[in-house]
Design goal:
Strand content: 15-25%
Helix content: 25-40%
Number of domains: 2
Structural class: alpha/beta
CATH architecture of the largest domain: Alpha-Beta Barrel
Oligomer: single chain
Radius of gyration: 25 Å
CATH topology of the largest domain: nicotinate phosphoribosyltransferase
Length: about 375
């Protein structure tokens, strides 16, 4: 293989596991030990998070003699809540713990960061620009999770195709530079002439000159067709970024270009969202979402041959998570032993995903459903200060 990636076949064969699982398999088979267990995936760290990666897990375990229960894709969950359970003989899934956690930890981390960004941005559009910050083999996964988490668009072509939307983007500095210094106006006009008119005209305005100067020039060059200017000013030249944006806004306004928005990118994270969302028309978010910290899930056996068991720090027994209607808040969900009953206003969150190794048709994997689930829950979310 030309690139440093692992094939689907190797993942499905369990070759991406940690060696101690293969050694465990060897020992258990040699000694004739293979108990029926229940294993649960949960985290003990952080605050609220968004669950993602379930479709990959379903394909990983498909065909194994296991039952799997999980919260639906896009569910907001909290520490100590099991988000996924596996029932079956341990050797059916032992070697798949590593890739299973890899799917859930990585994908949930990206979806969670995207949701946090969108929650802060409110109605201001946020676009995922971050696939260049990760290995290209996982570009589609990054964009899918960013979109599920609430990003309003994605820039990667392959990622957008997998989602079923059009890719979103403006223009790179390389376009301006290829035309040459002093010829920015030609580059902007060429974009306007060549690119289909359903693509918004957003001109990059910080390549050679002061942002204010280039923004005014772009507005004059494209006139009514200009949708926005983009500022991607490097941090080494940025100073007080808000003051730069305010200056550009002022100069555009006094010249009659009040409808021209200002789109910003480059090192944008939560602090920048809060500081700038009242004055910009959109954000391009790269590293902070694509390189989001993973959710630190662990998989633990909690039941052996029908009897509760767990290592220290974990609670034994197969469980169910119930959510009360109304507000979503840490501490409001009820975690009980499975079959413990529920109140009239409580919904069980763990639902059948695989039964006897077959994917349950009714389990919600839809990207759009997951995205809407995140949006609905964010509106109900109450975060403790």
């Amino acid at each position: 293989m030309k690139f440093g990636v692992v094939s689907e076949e190797e993942i499905l064969e369990g070759r991406t596991t940690d060696i101690y699982f293969l050694r465990t398999e060897e020992i258990l088979r040699a000694k004739g030990v293979n108990p029926v267990v229940v294993a649960e995936v949960s985290t003990t760290k952080g605050g609220w998070a968004v669950l993602a990666g379930l479709e990959d897990v379903a394909h990983l375990l498909e065909g194994k003699e296991v039952n799997v229960y999980a919260m639906p894709e896009g569910t907001i969950f909290f520490p100590y809540e099991p988000v996924l359970q596996i029932e079956g003989r341990y050797l059916e899934f032992a070697r798949y713990e590593t890739p299973l956690l890899g799917f859930l930890c990585h994908e949930s981390g990206i979806a969670t960061k995207a949701a946090r960004i969108k929650l802060l941005a409110g109605d201001v559009p946020v676009i995922s620009f971050g696939t260049r910050r990760q290995h290209p083999a996982i570009a589609a996964m990054i964009e899918r999770c960013a979109y599920v988490g609430g990003m309003d668009g994605v820039s990667c072509v392959a990622g957008a195709e997998r989602i079923g939307i059009n890719a979103t983007g403006t223009m790179p500095h390389s376009l301006i530079i290829c035309f040459g210094e002093g010829r920015q106006e030609e580059a902007w006009k060429a974009f306007d002439e060549v690119i289909p008119h359903d693509v918004p005209r957003i001109c990059l305005c910080d390549t050679y000159c002061d942002e204010k100067e280039e923004a005014i020039a772009a507005a004059k060059a494209l006139g009514d067709s200009l949708h926005a200017v983009r500022l991607d000013t490097p941090s080494t030249r940025r100073g007080d970024f808000r003051r730069i944006i305010e200056e550009v806004r002022w100069e555009l306004d006094i010249r009659g270009y009040k409808d021209v928005g200002i789109f910003v990118s480059g090192g944008i994270d939560e602090a920048e969202i809060l500081a700038l969302k009242d004055i910009v028309a959109g954000f391009g978010i790269g590293t902070s979402v694509a390189n989001a910290r993973c959710i630190d899930f662990a998989l633990d056996i909690v039941e052996r041959e029908g009897k509760p068991c767990a290592k220290r720090g974990k609670r034994g027994g197969k469980k169910q998570v119930y959510r009360r209607g109304g507000t979503i808040e840490e501490g409001r969900d009820l975690v009980t032993l499975a079959g413990g009953g529920e109140g009239e206003d409580m919904e069980p969150l763990l639902k059948p995903m695989l039964i006897d190794g077959e994917i349950v048709a009714e389990f919600p994997f839809s990207i759009e459903d997951a995205r809407q689930r995140v949006k609905d829950q964010l509106r109900r979310l109450r975060v403790r200060q």
